[in-house]
Amino acid sequence: MIRSGGIFDYDKRKVRVIELQDQTQDPELWNDPDRAQSIMKELDHEKQLVQSWDDLDELRDSILVYKQFLDEGEDVSDEIQTEIARFRKKLEDLELQNMLSDVDDHRDAIVTFNPGAGGTESQDWAEMLFRMHTRWAEKKGFKVSVIEYQDGEVAGLKSATIEVSGPNAYGYLKSESGVHRLVRISPFDSNARRHTSFSSVFVSPVIDDTIELNINESDVELQRFHASGAGGQNVNKVETGVRLIWTGKLSDGTEERVVAECQQERSQLQNREKAMVMLKSKIYELEKKIKEREKQKLEDSKGSNEWGSQIRSYVFHPYNMVKDHRTNHETGDVQGVMDGDLDEFMKAYLLANTAEQIA
């Protein structure tokens, strides 16, 4: 990371901030709310990066001053160590932000949870993943909206979808897309045997009018259902819930079935509009995965919910460990991870992808 012409390119980002600020002064911009919002998000992102670099500059100067005092015989060793620790932490944060440079990283995210085969075991695991990712988002200060939630027959959930809104939400959460594997002593097994469960997490960016994605409406089936909230709470006794099912071919010729549900709003029309955004976002993500596979930079993260396809394993018994199979990053703090401490896994994933792109 250098000041100009390298990975960070401070001067180029300063110029980009000026360009974006000039665009916000155009009265015509605000006639297009989606474009205006997109520009404001990019502006905030660039300004945040520039400010982070400026903060590093100030800390560096402070460290140099303390070093002069130290060279002159003053006892400021504690102070200089404190400043160095702050510098390292801010540098790591800036490096992580700088890695979120893909075209969709700044977008909000749609996260869908689906249990694999295994009935109650997998449905309970899907709910645990739902809670884990919701807690991560809340710790980040992101807004979490439950778009749809269907209770499991005995415990857990059959399916759920959340929308996570915040700076670079998709950039962070894309690392979670794939099959997650759990090994534990089952709380539902009277013989206390060890069970292995699978659940998939599928993450897509929330697209807007700046992205053109045309789908044939004749390929979309509309279903209506009674809306109900998480935990079985009744939201509406009329059929306001909407399920859209698209069956068609992707750009590589493969046939796909994509489902999007929404029961968040009280109006069926609003739920239908929201479900359509989700449907297009999911199809867009699938098309992105096709391009990534073609470039051989990333593996497809939408695997089948079974042994051998998992991106990460969570072992509760006979020992405690969470391990990401793509990066080999692991930790013994299982409880911390289940409470939403996912940053280190996300960072390892972003670092690995950045290394592949540079190579």
Write the element-wise H/E pattern from the N-terminal end onward. Answer: HHHEHEEHEEEEEHEEEHH
**Spatial sequence of strands, sheet with the most strands:** 2-3-1-5-4-9-10-11
Q: Overall pLDDT, averaged?
A: 86
Our count of helices gives 8
How much helical structure, as a percent, in the residues? 40-55%
Question: What's the assembly state of these chains?
Answer: single chain
Kindly give the count of domains: 2
Radius of gyration from CA coordinates: 23 Å
Task: Fill in the CATH topology of the largest domain.
Answer: Alpha-Beta Plaits
How widely separated are the two ends?
16 Å
Q: What best-fitting shape do the alpha-carbon axes yield?
A: globular
What fraction of the residues are assigned to beta strands by DSSP?
A: 15-25%
Structural class category: alpha+beta
Low-pLDDT ranges: 1-6, 230-237, 297-302
Count of beta strands:
11
